[in-house]
Amino acid sequence: MSNLVKIENGVAAVATDQWTLVQLPATQVEERKQAGKVVLFKLTGESTVTEEQIANTVIPATGKIIVPLSVFVERNNELASRIAQGEVGVWLATHELLEYLIQQQADLNTLPIIAVFVERFADGRIFSLGTLLRTRYGYKNELRAFGDVLRDQLFFLKRSGYSSFAIRKDRSAEEAIASLNDFSQPYQGAVDEPKPVFRRYNRGA
Amino acid sequence: MYKYDEIDQQIVDERVTQYRDQVRRYLAGELSEDEFRPLRLQNGLYIQRHAPMLRIAVPYGMLSSKQLRKLGDIAKKYDRGYGHFSTRQNLQLNWPKLEDTPDILAELATVEMHAIQTSGNCIRNITTDQFVGIAPDEVIDPRAIAEIMRQWSTFHPEFALLPRKFKIAVSGTKQDRAIVQAHDIGLEFYRDANDKVAIKVWVGGGLGRTPIMGSVIREHLDWQHALTYCEAIIRVYNLHGRRDNMYKARIKILSKAIGINEFRNQVEAEWTHLKDGANTITEEELARVSKHFEVMPYENLPDQDAGFDAALANNPAFAAWAKRSIHAHRQPGYRAVTLSLKPHGSAPGDITSEQMWAVADLADEYSFGELRSSHEQNLILADVKLSDLFAVWQKAKAHGLATPNIGLLTDIICCPGGDFCSLANAKSIPIAKAIQMQFDDLDYLHDIGDIELNISGCMNACGHHHVGHIGILGVDKDGSEWYQVTIGGKQGNDASIGSVIGPSFSAEEMPGVIQKLIEVYIKERTPEERFIDTVRRLGAVPFKKHVYAKDEVSA
Predict the structure, then answer these.
(1) β-sheet with B326-327: strand ranges across
(2) Which pLDDT score, from 0 to 100, does residue A205 have?
(3) 3-state secondary structure of A86
(4) Element (H, E) at B292
C-alpha cells in the first residue's frame, strides 16, 4: 500500500504515487553530504556530488521520474524533451542550494513536482526550503517531503508549503493525516496562510 | 499583564491534546526514544538523573497570583511540594512522572500557562528585565512587543527544528538588565532622533561552551519590523548553521565563521524579501496587546512615608533588608520588592508550595495581584506602597523569603547541577550552600557589598558563570568533580566575560577560595569601588597570587 499522503483541494488523503524516484549511486565520499558541511560548501562552492555519480545515475527510459538536482542540471540536455512533456521532477537534499536549481530552471512551474529529501526528521532546513520555493520562487505545483518524514512534523511541513508527504515506510500514513490539523488557528503567517492571526481575525481591543 | 483570548486558549488546549497523544504513542512503543526526544523537549520535558524535569514557561517573567497559586498546587500534587526558578525566569519541577505530564499541562492551561518551547532546538522563552514597566530608567516598555514575539514564535513552522536552541532577550532601559548581548538575538529598544520607537539589534551572543558577546547587526530598526527582521536572521541561521556538531551549532558560531559583515549582508538580502510582508506588526495589534500592560491604578502619593521612615530608624533588621531588597519605582510612593529565594544553606531559586501560596497572597494584598521572576532566580513584587513595606517584610520573613542578601555574595545564581541534571559535570547546589554558610555573617556581607557570584555545573552555562563577577564552573577531571574559577565577568551595558584564574579546585576548597578573593578586594578597594571595579582596575594578578599563595610556598 502507498504511504503517500497528498493534499488536494484542501483535503488530505492517502494517494497512489505516480512518480519513480531516481537515486544517485552510492559514493566513497559520503561524509561530504554531512549536514554540517553546508557552511563550507556555501563558502567554497564545492559540490557534494561527484561527476562520476552523476554520470552513473541510471535514468529509466520511460515514465514519470523525479531526478536528483545534480543530474537535472548536468544532464539536462538528455532530459529536455521529457521535461517539456511534464515527465520530469527534481529532488534535492536539505543541504543543497535552491540557487543552483533556479540557474538551470528559471521557471520552476515547468516542473510538475519538486521533492525535498530529509535524512533526519530533526533537520529543519526542509521548512525554509519549502517556504522559499513557494514564496520567493513562486512554485505552484506538487511539493513533496520524503525521507525521515514522521507525523509530528506534518503540521509544520504543510505550513511551509508542502502538499505531499511520503511517510516513512514503517509508519501509518492513515494515522499521520490527523496531525496535519494539530492546530486550528496558528499565530503567525506562513506559506499556507500568509496572514498572521492579527490580520485575519478580530481579536477585539 | 497579558490575558488570553479564545485564540490563545485554543492553542494551549490543542497543545495539551497533541502532547497527550505523543506521550501515549511513546508509552505504546509507537515512537522511539530518539523520535520522542525533540517532541518532549519542545514541551520542556527533560529526562534527568532521578526523574523527568518539566520546565514551565513564564513569558518574560510575568506571573499572576492565580498562576503562582496553581504552580504551588501542581508542585504539591504532582511533585515533592517545591519548584525551582531558573535563570531564564521559568519554573522547573524536578520530580514529576512522565505519565502525569499531560495532566500537568492541562492544569496549566486553565491558568493560561504552558511549557511550549521551553527546551529543544527552537525559539525559547523570551526574557527581559524584571523591573520592566516600573524602572525609572526605562525608555520603552518592551512587554507588548515581547508578547507579540511570543505568539509569533509559538509553533513557527519554519523555525520548528533549528540547528540549536535560540534565545531572544528584549530590553528597553538605559542600564541593560536583560543581558541582551549574551543572547542569540538581543533587541534593545530606544527612542530615535524623531522620538519614534526603534530597536538596536544584537546577534550572535551566547554563553555555553564558547562564550561570545553579541555584535550589532542593525543600529536602527523600526518596531513594526521586529518579526520580519528576526525571520530573516533565523532563516539564514536555519539554512546555514552547522548541524553536524551540537557544540558548534549556535548562531554565534555561524556569525563568527563568516564574520558579522557577511552575516549582516546575507540577513539584509533576505530581509528585502520579507520587509513589509504580512508579519509586519500593525499599529492596531500593538495597541491591542499594549492595553494589557497599561500602568497600574496607582494612588497619588508623596514619595515619603513617616511610618516607613520610623520603621527604618527603629528596626535595624528591617533597615538591612530594605537596603538590599527595595528598588526604585517610577511612581512616587511606590517601590519594587525582591523576595529572596536564596536563604543561606538552601538551593538557590527553590521555592516550596507554601511559599508560592504566601507570595501569591502578598501579591494580591500589596501588588495588584502580579509578580515577576528574575534571571537572578528571585521573585519580585513590582508595585508596593511605601506604607506597606514593613508589613510585606514581616510576612515575607515569616515565610523565609526575606533574607537581606539581594545583590550580595550569597544571592548566588546557580543551575540545578549534578544533583539533578544529567548534563552536569559537577554538583553546583552544595557549592552554593557551602559558600552561603561561609559568609553567613550579614554585617560582613553588607560590607562586601554588590557582587554577583554565578555557578554552572557544566559548560552549558545555565548559571551564566561567564558573566558573574566571580564565576564557578564545574568540570570533570578523571571522573571526579572540580571547579574552575573566573573573575571579571559582568552583565549590563559594559558586559564582559570573566577570565580563568588558574587550575581548578576541589569542592572542599571552594569556600576558602572565595574567601581569599574577597580578602584581596577588601584590602585593595578604594572607598567607592565594588568588587568588579577593583578587579577591572587591578586585573586578575593580585587575586591569583593570593588564592594560589599556599601552593607557591609548598612548591
Answers:
(1) B62-64, B370-373, B379-385, B334-339, B326-327
(2) 60
(3) coil
(4) none
pTM, to two decimals:
0.90
What does the pLDDT profile of chain A (205 residues) look like in tens digits?
A: 689 999 999 999 999 999 999 999 987 554 444 444 444 344 344 457 889 999 999 999 999 999 999 999 999 999 999 999 999 999 999 989 999 999 999 999 999 999 999 999 999 999 999 999 999 999 999 999 999 999 999 999 999 999 999 999 999 999 999 999 999 999 999 999 999 999 999 987 6
Strands B350-352, B334-339: pairing is unpaired
Between CA B188 and CA B170 the distance in angstroms is 6
Residue A51 amino acid letter: E
Please, how many CA atoms are within 13 Å of residue B234, restricted to the half-sphere of its CB?
Answer: 30
Residue with cell 546555514: B240
User: d(Cα B42, Cα B120) in Å, to the nearest integer?
Assistant: 5
Contact call for B35 and A184, based on CB within 8 A:
no
User: Which residue does chain B place closest to A96, by CA atoms?
Assistant: B239
Cell digits of residue B59: 513569558
CA distance A122 to A110: 31
Residue of B nearest to A203 (CA): B5
Q: Which residue is it, cell 523520535? A: B35
State the nearest Cα–Cα gap between A97 and chain B, in angstroms.
Answer: 9
What does the angle CA A27 – CA A29 – CA A34 come to, to the nearest 5 degrees?
A: 110
CA distance between the termini of chain A: 51
Within 30-89 of A, beta carbons closer than 8 Å to B belong to: 34-39, 42-43
**Cβ contacts of B285 on chain A, cutoff 8 Å:** 198
B379: its cell numbers: 521573585
Give chain B's largest Cα–Cα span: 71
User: How many beta carbons lie within 10 A of that of residue B136, not counting itself?
Assistant: 12
The rounded distance, in Å, linking the Cα atoms of B341 and B503 is 31
Nearest CB among B5, B153, B238 relative to A204 is that of: B5
Q: Do B157 and A159 touch (CB under 8 A)?
A: yes
Q: Which of B22, B158, B244 sits opposite A190 (nearest CB)?
A: B158
CA distance B277 to A188: 12
Q: Which residue intervals of B136-245 are DSSP H helices?
A: 143-153, 226-240
**Chain A residue closest in CA terms to B35:** A121
Rounded to 5 degrees, φ, ψ at B164 are: -160, 175
Report the distance separating Cα B138 and Cα B150, nearest Å.
Answer: 21
Q: Which residues of B touch A194 (CB under 8 A)?
A: 277-278
Grid cell of B73 as nine digits: 498546587
Contacts of B18 in chain A (CB under 8 A): 179, 182-183
Residue type at position B391: A
Query: Which of B152, B158, B280 to mutate to probe the A interface, most A CBs <10 Å?
Result: B158
Given a cut of 50, whether residue B17 has pLDDT beyond it is yes
Residues 6+ apart with CB under 8 A from A83: A76, A110, A111
Give the amino acid at B376.
E
Distance from CA of A107 to the nearest CA of B (A): 19
B260-274 and B226-240 helices, crossing angle to 10°: 120
Would you tell me how many other CB atoms lie within 10 Å of the CB of residue B170? 26
Q: Predicted confidence band at B345 (pLDDT cuts at 50, 70, 90)?
A: confident
A189 at B interface, C-beta within 8 A: yes
Distance CA B88, CA B373 (A): 9
Closest by alpha carbon to A56, among A48, A68, A44, A46?
Answer: A68
Do A187 and B242 lie within an 8 Å CB cutoff? Answer: no
Beta strands in B365-420 (DSSP E): 370-373, 379-385, 413-414
B7 → closest Cβ in A158, A185, A195: A185
